[in-house]
Amino acid sequence: MPRARLALAVGSAALLALAGCGTAADKKSDTKPDAFGCTADKLPTLAKGKLTIGTDNPVYGPWFVDNKPESGQGFESAVAYAVADKLGYPKDSVVWTRVTFNAAIAPGPKAYDFDINEFSITEDRRKAVDFSTGYYDVKQTVIALKSSKIAGAKSIADLKGANLGAQVGTTSYKAITDVIKPTDKPGVYNNNDDAKAALANGTLDGLVVDLPTAFYMTGAEIKDSLIVGQLPPLPGVQQEQFGLVLDKGSKLTSCVSQAVDQLRSNGKLAELAKQWLAGADGARELS
Questions:
Q1: Sign of the alpha-carbon dihedral angle for 189, 191, 196, 198
Q2: What span, in angstroms and rounded, lies between the C-alpha atoms of 106 and 27?
Q3: pLDDT digits (tens, 9 = 90+) for 111-170
Q4: Which is it for strands 225-230 and 140-145: parallel, antiparallel or unpaired?
Q5: How far is CA 218 from CA 61, 94, 142, 148, in A?
Q6: Angle CA(9)–CA(11)–CA(14) in degrees, nearest 5?
Q7: What is the pTM of this model?
Q8: Cβ(23)–Cβ(73) under 8 Å?
Q9: Contact of 256 with 36, CB cutoff 8 Å
Q10: Distances from the Cα of 65 to the Cαs of 145, 158, 242, in angstroms?
């Protein structure tokens, strides 16, 4: 059974049961994308009649299942297919390509029509790429081993002397440098597998990830670990959000954003979040 289908209780929050749930992308598109003026026959995608979606390799739960974005399983895989469906692309017209996190948001032409990989929307990144409107509201979270010196931390001040780490190029890393501002330089890791290993072997006192990933890691992946708490937003940011990444000045940006907006307004994004992601109950706020 895939790990992301485990029902996991973490404090008063739990990953919801994931088995046997399909999405609208599992069948021929039955939406009416022309309702907002964007149709598959007119969109200037990389390949005519196809929608190319990028993501990293590997990708992790609960965003994807078993590193198979094409499965439609996991929150971001399901969101990607829901957006594709809104644009008039059924599942068999979607093509996936693998692009590293940093390459996906670097300046220059892209090998995808849009990329989905927990990219937080920031003004600095907007200089190099376009973003859709946000499809998920983000909270950065500290996790640790139960034996860690910060396991009982109740405030940002309690984390100042900790050895913390996060994946390179992420807002999780910026949350360390700009919110926590620890005494020691944070550890930087190419991917979350390397970061998890550093936490598990004691190299790190704590790891910063987004909240659903924190629930998944502490519930399914890292033995004897726990959620220390949620961090305040980055300075100057009212609410951090994940957005789909597009080439700078892409002619698809408006249509993709309208698709995301419709999925938010009709309740589909909330439905998918409820299906695939853990809630915030039981994760204390650090201040």
A1: negative
A2: 34
A3: 999 999 999 999 999 999 999 999 999 999 999 999 999 999 999 999 999 999 999 999
A4: antiparallel
A5: 12, 33, 11, 14
A6: 35
A7: 0.83
A8: no
A9: no
A10: 24, 35, 19
